[in-house]
UniProtKB/TrEMBL annotation:
Keywords for the protein's UniProt record, in alphabetical order: Methyltransferase, S-adenosyl-L-methionine, Transferase
A biological process term (GO) from this entry: tRNA nucleoside ribose methylation
One Gene Ontology CC term in the entry: cytosol
GO molecular function terms noted in the UniProt entry: RNA methyltransferase activity
Organism annotation: mine drainage metagenome
PANTHER family on file: TRNA (CYTIDINE_URIDINE-2'-O-)-METHYLTRANSFERASE TRMJ, TRNA/RRNA METHYLTRANSFERASE
Transferase recorded as keyword: yes
Name of the molecule in the record: rRNA methylase
Coiled-coil stretches noted in the UniProt entry, renumbered to this chain: none
Similarity comment: family membership: Belongs to the class IV-like SAM-binding methyltransferase superfamily. RNA methyltransferase TrmH family.
Amino acid sequence: IELCDSFIHIPANPEYPVYNLSHSVAVILYEMLHQSITKGVNRKTSSNNVSRLVDQIIKTMELTSYPGYKSRNTSVMLRRMFSRAELTDTEYHKMMGLFRYIIFNLDENSGE
C-alpha cells in the first residue's frame, strides 16, 4: 500500500459492497474521463508555467550553494523532463508552492 500513488473509494451497495476488478477499472476510467471533459482537471500546464517552475528550482539551487556550472545543464534537463511529463496545472501549482516554501525557509534561515 505504501507504494500506491493514491487510494480510491468506489461507493457500493451495502448489501454487496464488493466489485469485480474489471468493473472497478471501468468505473474509475469512466469517472476520470467524465471529470477531464467536464472540469478540465488534467489540463496540461503552459510552457510559460514550466519556465517559471524551472526558474524557481534554479533559485532554490542557488540558495543551497548548488554548483553554478551545473545550473545551465540542469535547467535544460528540467525543462525537457517537465515537457515530456506533460505537467498539469494542478501539479505545477503544487510544485511551485513547495519550492516557494523551501525558498522562504532558506531565505529566513540565511538571515540568522
